[in-house]
Amino acid sequence: MKKGLSETCYLFFSTLSNPTRLAILELLREGPKNVTQISKALNQEQSMISHNLRPLIRCGFVFVERRWKERIYSLNRETMEQVFKIFDSHAQKYCKTRGKCLK
After folding, report:
1. Is 40 helix (H, G, I), strand (E, B) or coil?
2. C-alpha distances in angstroms, 37 versus 5, 14, 27?
3. What is the pLDDT of residues 49-102, one digit of tens each?
């Protein structure tokens, strides 16, 4: 694989290809949350949520802020809202089968 943009795109999309990570991003659109809140909302173990938050933070899709002993996670709205808008626009315009083309 070539270095540069193709590698960046690969890392970007491979990070987003996980359903749990996408669910975390969608949940954080509602507002900042700690890992317990995310875990309860998605009905998943905290360890699984923590494991999936790491790449989202590393890629800058999610920010983390420490408040005392607690970590609060928030969506990088500058980037992710544009990504969601592009996906929604594409799906509305080109995915006439309501996502079945993706299976």
Report:
1. helix
2. 35, 25, 10
3. 999 999 999 999 999 999 999 999 999 999 999 999 998 888 888 887 765 665
101 CB-contact burial (10 Å; exposed 0-12 / middle 13-18 / buried 19+): exposed
* Domains of the chain, residue spans: 5-75
Distance between CA atoms of residues 28 and 75, nearest Å: 6
CATH number belonging to domain 5-75: 1.10.10.10
Reported residue count of the chain is 103
pTM over 0.70: yes
